[in-house]
Fold this protein.
Amino acid sequence: MRSLVASILIWLLAIGCNPNKPKDSGGSAGSTGSAGSSGSGGSAGSAAQAPDDIDSKDVLARTQVARESYVRHVLLSWSEREAFYAASQGEIDPRAKARDRDATTKLAKEILAQIRAKPDSIDALIEKHSEDPESRTGDPVRIEPGGGYPKPFIDLALRLKEQEAGIVTSDYGYHVMLRVGKPPPDPLESADILKRDEESPPIYWQHIMIGWDQRPANPDPRARARTKDAADALAKEVLAKVRAKGDMAKLMKQYSEDSTSKDSARVAKSLGGATDPVERLACRLKIDEAGLVRSPLGWHIVKRVTTPPPPPPDKLESLAILKRKPQTQNAKVKHILLGWTEVNAGDARGKKRSRAELEKLVPEILARAQKGEPFESLMIAFSEDAPEAVRSGQAYPVSPEEQLVQPFIDLSLRLKVGELGVVRSEFGLHIIKRVE
C-alpha cells in the first residue's frame, strides 16, 4: 500500500485543496486505495499533462532535481474542475465553484507576484486564498521524487531553489508554491529513533493518531476541540501507556482518531523506503518499541509489532488459484476494490455496504466481466481505489519486489493472462484481472 500520510494528502487535495495504494497514489483517514505500496509514488494529476501557459516552465525545464524539498503552497481551482473533484469523491471549494479559469489565472498570477516580492507573505496568502485545507496547517510539505502528490506538483517542488516561488497546474488546479527551508523537528518527536537506519523489511506496526484544532485534515470532534498544548500532553500520556505494555488494541479504540484503524486495531505493513513521517518512524523501531512523530494529521504514537498471523481465508476468495504455484514473476493487472462496513478503504460506498450486499455484488461483477463487459468500465462503475487509478483504468506491474500488500501480489502472480480472481486484503476485496 502506499505510504500513510502521502495518501491522505492526496485525499486532502481532492476534498478542496486512501496505508497504501497501488503504485501510480499507512492508512490514516480519508480514501486510501488498494493494492498498496509502502513507498510513495504516482500522481493524482495526469503524468503526461503538458505544461500550462501559466506554469513556471523555466523552473520545470531545469535538470537539477533535489533529493527532497519543503514547500508551502496556495491551491486555486475553478468551476470547470468541479467534475474532476466529484469523480475524486471530493468537494470543490465554493470559491473555486464560483470562479472561471480566466479569473483564477489572474488571481494566481497576482499571488505569485506577491510571494516573489515578499516571501514572508506566504502564510497570510495561504490563509486567505488556499483551497487545500492541509496547506493551512502552518507546516511545509516534504516532497521527494516519486512522492504521493500530483506529478506536476512534485516536478516543480524539486526544481525550485529555497525561497524561490513558482506555479504549476495539476488536475486540482493551480499550485502557487514557495520552497522553504527544512523545518526544525518538534521537540516531542522521537528524534533519536528517526536518526537510525531503517530496520530490515517487512515492518509491521500499529499507531494511535491524536490531532488538534490546527490539523484540518483530522475531522474527529475531539481533535477540533483540542489545542496543540493539550494534544502534546495527551500524546505524551498515551505514549507512556504504550511503552508500559498497555493493550494496543484497547488504546487505539480509546484514543485514536484514525477512523480506518482505531476500531479494528489494524496492523500496517511497510517495506522500507517510505517518505511519510509515520512509516519513516515505523521502519526505524525495534520490535515492541514505540515512538512519537508528527504529521499533517496530528501526533502518531507508533508501535512496531511482530508479524501477525495470516487471516483465515475469505469464502469469496479464489482459493483454488491461490493454491497454485506462481505462473510468472512479472505480471500486469487491473483490479476493482470493494469494501464493506467492517473492512474498507474509506470510500463512502464501502462504509455503507453490508457483508451480505458485498456477497451479492462480487459474483455479479465477475459475471459481467466474464461475459465480456470491458473491465475498465467496471472499474469506473465500482472500484473504490484511488480516483486517478479508477479514471485511467491503468494496469499495475506486479512482482515479488513491488511494494504492494502481499495478498494482492500472491493472487496476481498466480493468475493466467486474461483470468479473473478475488482476494482479500486489509483494505477490502480485490477483483483482479491479469492483462499481461
Remarks:
- Confidence is low (pLDDT under 50) at residues 1-34, 36-48.
- The longest strand covers residues 69-76.
